[in-house]
Task: structure prediction
Amino acid sequence: MNKIVITLGCIVMVAAQWFVPGQMIYEQESVLTQGNPYKFKTQPIDPSDPLRGKYITLRYEMERSTKITDTIWNPNDPIFVYIEEGEDGFAEATAVSQKPLDLDQDYVMARYQYSRKGSINFDLPFDRFYMEESKAYDAELAVRETNRNRDSLAPVCYALVYVKDDVAVLDNVFIGEKSVKEIVEERQN
Result:
């Protein structure tokens, strides 16, 4: 009897260990195939914040100066940032709220940081783009160089993010029309 219980317990444990990551992968893939794509413009990052691990660090223009009317906000509280595609083809925040609004728009969950003079600063959750270790540093340099060169003829650096319900998945980072992976491969060859 004990052997049967132990065997069943092991089978349930193994099944759970496969089910949980499988469910997470399925959810991410579902967002990538059925979600709405948005381009989020990146902004320069502090050069003293170096590459940490096998990813590039991203900051977004949208994270700054979104107008608000509420005045009571607590640091690191989750907030709803409603987005739509702007005239320039890039995502823009249309509303920010501490509670869900009755809007027929996509939204991303973010973390409130601080507000000043009627505007709010927040952190979007997709601030890391993971890459192969040998390419991550060169990719961060390419993103940093592009974001520092902000004239009207320079290519724009942006992240392609798919949004479905309240889940956002960072798909790729582009400089102009080329993915950062392609740019790094060209530079390394």
Helices lie at 2-34, 133-148, 180-188.
